[in-house]
Specification:
Elements (H helix, E strand, L loop, with lengths): L2 H21 L15 H26 L7 H14 L1 H9 L9
Organism: Roseateles puraquae
Protein name: DUF2818 domain-containing protein
Pfam family, one: DUF2818
C-alpha cells in the first residue's frame, strides 16, 4: 500500500468512526440496545473510536515505513480533528428539527 492510499484510508475510516456513535442505539455497535442511549455513552464511544482510529493510523504508518514519534500537540490536534469530523452525526442526532418529539 502506498502512502497516499494509506492517508485516504485513515481519513475515510476516521469520518465513519467519528459519526458511528450518533447513528446507533447499541453500545459500541454490538452491545445491547439502549433507547435512548445517553450522551455519556456516546462520548465514551467517541473516545473509543478515536483511539481505534489512532491505532489504525499508527499501524499503517509502521507498515509503510519508520514510525515517527509524536508529541502531545499532535494528539491534541488529532483529537480536535476527530471531534470535528463527528459534527455531521452530532447535528443529525441532536440539532435536527423534531428530533426530540415524543411519539404518541
Amino acid at each position: 500500500m502506498d502512502q497516499t492510499t494509506a492517508v485516504w484510508g485513515v481519513l475515510v475510516f476516521a469520518v465513519v468512526a467519528a459519526n458511528l456513535p450518533y447513528f446507533s442505539e447499541r453500545l459500541l455497535l454490538v452491545g445491547p440496545r439502549r433507547a435512548p442511549k445517553g450522551g455519556w455513552w456516546r462520548l465514551l464511544e467517541l473516545v473509543f473510536m478515536a483511539a481505534l482510529t489512532f491505532g489504525v493510523g499508527t499501524a499503517l504508518e509502521a507498515q509503510i515505513g519508520q514510525r515517527h514519534a509524536q508529541g502531545w500537540e499532535f494528539y491534541a490536534a488529532a483529537a480536535c480533528l476527530f471531534a470535528t469530523l463527528g459534527f455531521p452525526g452530532f447535528v443529525w442526532r441532536y440539532l435536527r428539527r423534531g428530533a426530540h418529539r415524543v411519539e404518541d
